[in-house]
């Protein structure tokens, strides 16, 4: 099995298992090429003997998309990938932005975003830059853009219902810790839930893992339940309690931090550092 066949087979076997609900993966190949690659992927992680291959394995192309979105992405691995991709730009993976009913400007914006993030992941010297590009940048942006559209529609509906104001919202915040937070799937899930539930906060990745979130009581309780439903090592819910968000209007969205000291500083900016230090989290960072 050539390096190209091995790398491509591993990628194609891995990608489908990294997708979130609503995301899909499919090969975009002629029937015979589809048969060859389906057999290769099946045999890659099994004891099944390799299928009879032609002298030249066809180039592989696959599509990743989100249900209900006009935009999708197609990725093609050139025939000498990854051996010559560092020396010959024509052998670097090709990422195509596909979409029906989108404007030329929107298409150009997406192409620019893809190129920007591709350069970024290649600069990180990742072993799997295309995996990182899709799972950490392109698919999350599709979810984020969709949420923005849904938010604008919701705001329009709320304006129409302003004559019948809803009861005042009770705001809560929650702090959770774990032995570690490394999994890209967990990190993307936290980002997606925060967007869907209109929650602000952050996750400290690495060792230990720290998750802080604030929002409406109902949404925070749902967020915490979602986190607890995943598999963790030594997950602890430190608290879920009411909070005053009046002084926290400038801290919106979801962030990630790498160091405990950054967590302490962020909580200090929010005026909530006591919640961290009283539990011994980051106490050394204050010395």
Structural overview:
- The chain is of the alpha+beta class and 287 residues long.
- The strands form two sheets. A five-stranded mixed sheet has the order 8-5-7-6-9. It has a four-stranded antiparallel sheet with strand order 1-2-3-4.
- Helix 3 crosses helix 4.
- The radius of gyration is 23 Å and the shape is globular.
- The model has no long low-confidence stretch (mean pLDDT 79).
Mean pLDDT: 79
> Low-confidence spans: pLDDT under 50, at least 5 residues?
none
| Count of extended strands | 9
β-strand amount: 15-25%
Strand order of the largest sheet: 8-5-7-6-9
Number of helices: 8
| Helix/sheet category | alpha+beta
Rounded to an integer in angstroms, the radius of gyration calculated over CA atoms is 23 Å
Distance between the termini: 56 Å
Q: Tell me, what's the shape?
A: globular
Q: Spell out the helices and strands N to C.
A: HEHEEEHHEHEEHEEHH
Helix content range: 40-55%
Biggest β-sheet: count, sense, barrel?
A: 5 strands, mixed
